[in-house]
Design brief:
The chain is built from 17 helices and 11 strands. It is α/β, with parallel strands linked by helices and about 500 residues long.
Length: about 500
């Protein structure tokens, strides 16, 4: 009888409770884990005593930024030296620069050098569904930081919560409350508490002025794209992680990778190692690194894309047109490589030009030469085939953009003199430009842009007509070989 009662009453209850617990655990897991209902708690990652072990020696190519941040490290090591003279360290330091330049790594390197706890959180982590939760997270973060002082608090992508307040109805109240709480917390502790706030953004112009004023984020440290020497140093740092041939010319690789960020350079080195493995070699050679630059720039080779004979001829003349116009003009970068092998980016071929050194300023003549070089491909097609193809679409886009910038931003038009007719937003994220002039002026700008590009197009036509024999000879050679080096090109040109 008791056995029957056990089976009838108690066993179903046990099964029901066990099933309920199982379902509860599954729901909790889907909602974000056991801490899903812990509202207002900061989910900052804490690296106590810099567990990642990143030092300044691991960060290459940003010497100016490192010099700025070394002062912070010295302060955290010996604050008395600064207190004796009456100096207070900046409460906040803002790292600004394009994506992939190493802002987050620099912040970790500061913590590693100072050997102090490092709190890392993204700006988007403060934004919550419920109003007031972001502000609560800010309070909790600074409470933890004060308990572990001296320490570093790093807020990545601070523009997610630090955007300018517009005061309009229907704005994001949650974000503004979070920003107000951050401002309050930064005012709430003295400069000698040992809590240093580092923040990173690639949109500094969008930040609220109350956040960037002295007393909050006192210092702005630019983390720009590396120069030639910086690129070489970064490549060497990443090359330590892989096996590389001893005869690699890092200077040449750095010149070819002009305009690349630290993250892109790391990707180039990794792509070189992957290519070496695919070819069955145990170390990466010079050719691997050069090919990996092309992969990052133009994508992988499209082995299946088979051009017709006519298309191949058109592409060969197009690319030689670029190279020949560039070589015949003064102050043009030397040609490094020409290829008509299609790439996954959609390019049917390209001409790689490499600057010899750092180039910070460009004259009007150099910019005009660059536009002429961009029009050289279409000019060659018109000269030889008496027609135009769709292959010049990217050239047209770049030439137009450059010509417009010369007139509206660089003051290279005698009619407009030194008047800014265009403003650039988000300079670190591509630099979207918007006209700041009347409709009549905009129409005149369009006319001058057309005239400038047309004039350089005619110059390219003239250069190619004067060197028609070399154009034909080089195009035939490229058609046969599919890929030629700059040395081969110059050798045929100078014969």
């Amino acid at each position: 009888m008791y056995k029957r009662q056990l089976l009838t009453w108690i066993l179903p209850i046990v099964i029901f409770v066990a099933l309920g617990q199982y379902l509860s655990r599954r729901m909790m897991k889907n909602m974000g884990g056991p801490n899903a209902m812990a509202f207002g708690k900061s989910n900052a990652k804490v690296y106590v005593k810099s567990s990642e072990g990143i030092k300044f020696s691991d960060v290459a190519g940003e010497d100016e930024a490192k010099d700025n941040l070394k002062e912070i490290v010295e302060y955290l090591h010996d604050p008395k030296k600064y207190q004796e003279i009456g100096a207070t360290m900046p409460k906040g330091i803002l790292l600004v620069g394009p994506p992939g330049t190493g802002k987050t790594m620099l912040a970790k390197a500061v913590a590693g050098e100072a050997n102090v706890p490092f709190f890392s959180i993204s700006g988007s982590d403060f934004v919550e569904m419920f109003v007031g939760m972001g502000a609560s997270k800010v309070r909790d973060l600074f409470k933890q930081a004060k308990e572990k002082a001296p320490c570093i608090v790093f807020i990545d992508e601070i523009d997610a919560i630090g955007k300018k307040r517009d005061g309009q109805l229907g704005g994001n109240d949650e974000r503004e409350q979070t920003l107000n709480q951050l401002l309050t917390e930064m005012d709430g502790f003295e400069g000698n508490t040992g809590v240093i706030i580092l923040a990173a953004t690639n949109r500094p112009e969008s930040l609220d002025p109350a956040l960037t004023r002295p007393g909050r984020f006192d210092r702005r440290v630019p983390v720009e794209l590396p120069d030639l020497q910086g690129r070489e140093d970064i490549l060497k740092v990443h090359a330590k992680k892989i096996k590389v041939a001893e005869d690699v010319d890092w200077g040449k690789v750095a010149r070819m990778a002009s305009g690349a960020s630290g993250a892109e350079l790391a990707n180039i080195v990794n792509e070189a190692a992957l290519r070496a493995v695919r070819d069955g070699r145990r170390f990466a050679a010079q050719a691997d690194l050069e090919e990996s630059i092309e992969v990052v720039i133009a994508g992988y080779q499209k082995k299946n894309a088979i051009l017709t004979d006519q298309e191949k001829k058109v592409v060969a003349y197009h690319e030689i047109g670029h190279a020949l116009v560039a070589a015949k003009q003064t102050n043009s970068a030397p040609v490094q490589k020409i290829t008509i092998v299609p790439r996954t980016s959609g390019a049917l071929g390209y001409t790689m030009q490499v600057e010899e050194g750092n180039h910070y300023l460009m004259s009007q003549e150099e910019l005009e030469n660059k536009i002429a070089t961009l029009t050289g491909g279409r000019a060659a097609e018109e000269l030889v085939f008496h027609s135009a193809s769709t292959g010049a679409s990217n050239d047209i886009e770049q030439a137009t953009k450059l010509a417009r910038a010369m007139i509206t931003r660089y003051g290279m038009s005698p009619d407009f003199d030194m008047v800014a007719l265009e403003t650039v937003q988000n300079q670190y994220l591509g630099g979207d430009a918007s006209l700041a002039c009347s409709a009549e002026t905009a129409a005149e700008i369009d006319r001058q842009v057309v005239e400038l590009v047309k004039r350089q197009h005619e110059k390219a036509n003239r250069i190619l007509s004067e060197n028609r024999e070399k154009l034909d000879e080089l195009a035939r050679y490229l058609y046969e070989k599919e890929t030629i080096t700059g040395d081969e090109f110059m050798e045929i040109l100078n014969q």
